[in-house]
DNA sequence: CATGAATGAGGGTTCATTCAT
DNA sequence: GATGAATGAACCCTCATTCAT
């Protein structure tokens, strides 16, 4: 309960200044806690980061799996793109921390998280392969296409702000269209657009960065 | 003279562990210099980072401007994409540091570098606007398309390794095709593919991260 | 609580070797504290010095003001001289640090402390002017006389040691006599000699210097 | 020759910020020399300070000895006071460095310089003893009187500036008068007022301190 | 004469973490 | 739960000094 606040403060700082540049006293102050008290809630700086990243990746995997119940490969990919973009737009700071600060995890923690991310990315790889096999997608290079599509979705964290010019659904639809165009596929739309949940760790305050 | 070595070591460390997590003694050791001697060459940690980023952004602006002498808007955009991808693939670590660690610059340094990056991005914005005006591009949203195209090019730093599976020119051509597809434009290819120079700051050793 | 100890150690070192030549680890060791723990009590080296000097000057101003309730100008001056000499003899090291190391304060801190010292010196200037006006003092140059009188009192810090050859009261009386002689005034003695308090910052150990 | 410039710069810095707080590069910059070049002229930081102090104390002893050819003990003391005040007023910064920074000398250097200062002070002690013996002086305490007289003369360095309100000779005469008053001696004036030379080490620029 | 390069030691300060209270 | 006190390690940086050129 209180832990949500802590995660929010952590993500806000980590996203803005980076994990290494964020002090534990600073985090404590942000939630009105003595730095020593933080150690009752989270086990330490590393564990805090690990918790944030794990929650994020878990949510990404769960959300993505929920989104791909469609039968049609094109719709499956469209759902994945919509989820990826939607999740990133809904949790821009958490998503960025989960990406950038993987390197700040040490040893086995990083390996564990990396395998979660691999699992997530595999969903995209599979969908793309299915589409290729079904003759629906015609990318010059399937691997590069997947990377490009995911990367451009991830980039949404850099500029999308809830309540901005574009509604989330519109952004999702646009990215679906761009992704399918990259694959030279027929336009498609998932039966229903996935609406990713806002994580506990996502700060309420808009960030100033970029 | 050995400033190139220093920049290389710095970029290697900054890309792998981040600016804040990199110690100045560590950098010195990486080039066989006492930490105090580093201060003889670079003025300090901030100045070192600033130098790296400035050199990188300068090269990006110069290279991109050289690349857009084509008359045709589609070719101009193709050239820009090819340069962007080529530069990122040739200098993946430097490019990533220049992007990620902007936040580690303080105050006016960051503002100055941000304005350089804005200048670079403006080239893409202009090319896209020209193509739209000429009726060549049909993106659902011009702004989002530009961000998506740039972002997917930037993402190349995450996976491309010189000497890997794909030749640089092939990657450039693929990205040109993907970008034009996003814009629903006719296929186009620049008169000659830009061949971005390798920066002094780009380490020779492949990175371990990601 | 043990802040007194810290101040004492600081004054002892500052008086012996000077502020700039004193290391913070050295100070910590002198009170059996890790250098980092010092920062828990005092905010830093500057703040430590500032605290010492401010306490000293506050005590000087308070003590001097308490000492000048006499009506007669000559007695007033005698009281001031007695206090000045007494304070300096009782807190020789603290007094010297407060004088010598003013220059080690930076910017506004120095200005603030200088104005406290001005306030203190003004008490002497006023007493002298009153005596002159009343025709009791006949110095060749009032300004020079004030400086001479104060300076010779300050000099007590260089040689007086509690428990030495002379009792404090005897020293005070001698200085009163010398001061009044400088002013060609009739001998006078305050109703009661001020007995300045020993500051928390005054070390117990006799100093080795000079 | 060049050495005079160096000493001047050194004294200027040492008087303003103290020996420990003055960097050797700083001194080099002040005379337009590389820090390494300083080592050709002066052997090191310690040696530089030693040279300054020794020159100063030598000049003080020589000057004082020259000044006491008078037969009459009162005139002898008057000459000494006049010299002391005159020297201090003429070389305020050098004199202060020679006094304050004795502590920055290490080991035998300090002992040697201290014995020079003792030799200088002995001249005053002797003159005072002669006067006492001759029944000319009647101080409550001869030792204290000597300290007071010397200290008030030394204090001149804190406020006297060449070209200020008072001519040097006037200051000297005033101090003679004050000193003799302290001793309850008849007014006396030396046959001729000693005119102390300006040392090579005395900076031309007026100091800002105090 | 003069200097740039180089270094080991140390400067003040902040760090994540622990623990008795 | 919560905290102030405490610490060793590390932080970036500056120091006086040396030496080949």
Automatic annotation (TrEMBL), chains A, B, C, D:
Protein name: AcrR family transcriptional regulator
All copies of domain HTH tetR-type, residue ranges: 1-60
InterPro entries for this protein: Homeodomain-like_sf (IPR009057), HTH-type_TetR-like_transc_reg (IPR050109), HTH_TetR (IPR001647), KstR2_TetR_C (IPR041490), Tet_transcr_reg_TetR-rel_C_sf (IPR036271)
Keywords: DNA-binding
Classification via Pfam families: TetR_C_24 (PF17932), TetR_N (PF00440)
Domain of life the protein comes from: Bacteria
Source species: Glutamicibacter protophormiae
DNA-binding region coordinates: 23-42
Organism phylogeny: Bacteria, Bacillati, Actinomycetota, Actinomycetes, Micrococcales
PANTHER family the UniProt entry points to: HTH-TYPE TRANSCRIPTIONAL REGULATOR RUTR (PTHR30055), HTH-TYPE TRANSCRIPTIONAL REPRESSOR BDCR (PTHR30055:SF200)
């Amino acid at each position: 309960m209180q832990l949500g606040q802590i995660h929010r403060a952590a993500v806000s700082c980590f996203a803005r200044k980076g994990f290494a540049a964020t002090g534990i006293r600073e985090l404590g102050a942000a939630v009105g806690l003595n730095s020593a008290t933080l150690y009752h809630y989270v086990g330490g700086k590393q564990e805090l980061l690990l918790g944030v990243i794990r929650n994020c990746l878990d949510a990404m995997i769960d959300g993505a799996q929920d989104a791909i119940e469609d039968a049609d490969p094109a719709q499956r990919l469209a759902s994945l793109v919509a989820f990826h973009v939607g999740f990133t737009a809904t949790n821009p700071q958490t998503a960025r921390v989960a990406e950038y600060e993987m390197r700040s995890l040490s040893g086995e923690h990083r390996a564990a998280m990396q395998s979660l991310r691999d699992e997530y990315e595999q969903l995209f790889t599979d969908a793309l392969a299915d589409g290729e096999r079904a003759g629906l997608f015609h990318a010059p290079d399937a691997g590069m296409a997947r990377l490009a599509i995911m990367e451009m979705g991830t980039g949404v964290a850099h500029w999308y702000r809830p309540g901005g010019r574009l509604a989330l659904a519109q952004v999702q639809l646009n990215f679906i269209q761009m992704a399918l165009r990259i694959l030279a596929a027929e336009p498609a739309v998932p039966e229903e657009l996935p609406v990713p949940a806002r994580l506990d760790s996502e700060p309420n305050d808009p960030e100033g960065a970029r």
